């Protein structure tokens, strides 16, 4: 079979698995997720998963999101890694490695509608905490960092949201802003790779989902770059407000009870 035949077969498999309407929902989700990521430095999963959860099963939704979210970060990782606090990043990663298998096991047992409700619920809780200024106020002891890494690993494996525990931890940190952003950035990249590896070991990586995830990386990267270019620190509150609105709207759209009307 030549390359052209292989491409046609793969495209036929993709269109049989994902309808044009489903691909449109995924594309809209990727565009909005990239924009929010460009404004705030996080939020990809909170925006994209409610869209993806509407049109595919939980494992495929997370697979597409992880692949989509790798393209830009992989290009920026070498430079960003130099800004990290290596000691804390290692502790976060160790915690994630230990807890993620349990999270993945939970994911495999979740019915699709339950997955969508949990993703929207976690997104709403995080959003309310961000808006309300909830912060972790205690010193960042090593056990705390390990625990937060483990919490991120569990949430990443179970519902594709490894970021919230780490984001809350670092919002209270006394580390420089550049270091905080770099640690979150690299941790989320590592979490993505760990989750994809877990799916691969379990034989749950569909070729079609991988290809669609890579394709969705391009619109996500486009709006991520646009959001970064347009972002003006002097109007940070305005940009954060817009990002929070997009996150909230995505969480509402992701609810099964709302999805039947869309």
Key traits:
262 residues; mainly alpha; 82% helix; 0% strand
Structure in words:
The protein is mainly alpha-helical and 262 residues long. It is 82% helix and 0% strand. It has 13 helices and no strands. The chain has helices spanning 3-17, 20-40, 44-55, 58-68, 71-81, 86-109, 112-132, 142-159, 163-171, 177-201, 207-230, 236-254, 256-259. It is globular.
Helical stretch tally? 13
Main sheet, how many strands, which sense, barrel?
none
How helical, in percent, are the residues? over 70%
Shape: globular
Low-confidence stretches: none
The overall pLDDT, averaged over residues, is 84
Count every beta strand, where a strand is a DSSP E run of 2 or more residues: 0
**Beta content:** under 5%
